[in-house]
């Protein structure tokens, strides 16, 4: 039986009924918890600054300076 804190039994029964119609006798798949991460604040002094960088990119003849930490923070991997 599903339990919802602060909700009535009729709501829990309705949700259970919806899941039963969607999944039948099959177990309901686990729903992964979404981890909310706060976006990193980028100090303008660290953006494209030769003195404050530890990574350099050369793109179409132009040099761009970056930080490994900022690149990792911005990456989806």
From TrEMBL:
InterPro entries: Ankyrin-BTB/POZ_domain, BTB/POZ_dom, SKP1/BTB/POZ_sf
Coiled-coil residue spans: none
Ranges where the BTB domain occurs: 53-77
Annotated Pfam families: BTB
Name of the protein in its database record: BTB domain-containing protein
Lineage summary: Eukaryota, Metazoa, Chordata, Craniata, Vertebrata
């Amino acid at each position: 039986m599903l339990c919802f804190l602060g909700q009535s039994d009729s709501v829990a029964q309705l949700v259970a009924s919806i899941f039963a119609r969607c999944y039948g006798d099959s177990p309901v798949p686990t729903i992964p918890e979404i981890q909310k991460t706060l976006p990193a604040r980028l100090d303008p002094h660290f953006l494209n600054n030769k003195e404050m960088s530890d990574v350099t990119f050369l793109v179409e003849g132009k040099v761009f300076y970056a930080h490994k930490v900022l690149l990792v923070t911005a990456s989806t991997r």
